C-alpha cells in the first residue's frame, strides 16, 4: 500500500504544491499538509514522544505499587497506558521513517487508520485516568484513608495518564481535520 | 450575528446548491451541508433529544439516591449530566428554530461554538461516567459491599450518562467535520 506522497518538487514551481491533486480547481486551496503536529512532521514526532513518555512514566509508577491489582480500575489504567505507549511508539517510528525519507503521510487510508487508532487509544487512556482519579479522590478525600504514600504514587500515575491523553488529543484532532479537509 | 444561510432555491437550478460559495471552482464539490445529524437537520434534533433524554434520566435516577453527595465523583456526575442536559436542550431549541424557519446553521462562528461546546460537555459527561463507574466497580466487585439496591441505581445512572455521551459524540464529530471541510 502506497501510504506516502513525495514532497520533493522543482524549486522553480513552488505554488504547484498547493494545487497538487486538486483536479480542475482553479483556485489554489490552502491545505493543512505541512502543519506541525500532522503525521510525518517534526511536531507530530514530538507529540508522539510526549504521549509515549507520559504513558511509560504512568506505567512505571503503577509498577512500583505492589497491590494495585486489587482494584479493577488500576488494572485498567495499567492496560490502557500500556496500549497507549505501544501505539505512540509505533506511530513515532512511522513518523521518523517518513521524515527520514522526506515523504508526507497523507494517504486517505493511512490517515483514517491513524485517526481511528488515536481516537480509541486516547479515549481508553482518558477513561482509565478518570476511573482511577475517582477512586483516588474517594480514598483520599471522602474516606480519608491515605495511610501510606500509595495515594501520592496513584496521583502521580493518574496525572501522567491525563498528560498522555492531553498530548494524544491534538494528534487525533489533526488527523481528523486532515481527513475532513481533503 | 447572521448565523444561518437560506436553503430556498428556485427549483429550476438545483445543482447550484452544491457550488454555492465555491468561488472559481469548476467542479461541484460535495459538501456535508445536508447530512443528517448536522445542526439544523432532523437527525441533529433527534441526537439532541437523545442526549437530553439520557442525561435527564441519569439525573433523575441520581436524585432518588439520598446519600450520593458523600462521594465526590457522584456529585460530579450530577453536575455533568445537569450541564449536558441544559446544553442539549438549548441546542435542540436552536435546531428546531432553524428547521421551522427553513434555514441551515452553517455560519463558521456558530459551528465553532457548537463544536467547542459539544466537545467540552461530552468530555465532562464521559469523565464523570468513568469516575462513577470506577467507584461502582470498586464497591460492587472489588469490595463486595453492595448491601442495598444503591448499586443498581448507580449503575443505571452511569449507563444513562454513557449513552448521553455516546449520542453527544456524533454531534461533536459532525460539527468538527463540517468546520474542517469548508
TrEMBL record, chains A, B:
<comment type="subunit">
    <text>Homodimer and heterodimers.</text>
</comment>
<dbReference type="Pfam" id="PF04535">
    <property type="entry name" value="CASP_dom"/>
</dbReference>
<keyword id="KW-1003">Cell membrane</keyword>
<feature type="transmembrane region" description="Helical">
    <location>
        <begin position="113"/>
        <end position="139"/>
    </location>
</feature>
<dbReference type="InterPro" id="IPR006702">
    <property type="entry name" value="CASP_dom"/>
</dbReference>
<feature type="domain" description="Casparian strip membrane protein">
    <location>
        <begin position="38"/>
        <end position="166"/>
    </location>
</feature>
<protein>
    <recommendedName>
        <fullName>CASP-like protein</fullName>
    </recommendedName>
</protein>
<keyword id="KW-0812">Transmembrane</keyword>
<feature type="transmembrane region" description="Helical">
    <location>
        <begin position="159"/>
        <end position="180"/>
    </location>
</feature>
<dbReference type="InterPro" id="IPR045009">
    <property type="entry name" value="CASPL-5"/>
</dbReference>
<keyword id="KW-1133">Transmembrane helix</keyword>
<keyword id="KW-0472">Membrane</keyword>
<comment type="similarity">
    <text>Belongs to the Casparian strip membrane proteins (CASP) family.</text>
</comment>
<feature type="transmembrane region" description="Helical">
    <location>
        <begin position="85"/>
        <end position="101"/>
    </location>
</feature>
<dbReference type="GO" id="GO:0005886">
    <property type="term" value="C:plasma membrane"/>
</dbReference>
<feature type="transmembrane region" description="Helical">
    <location>
        <begin position="52"/>
        <end position="79"/>
    </location>
</feature>
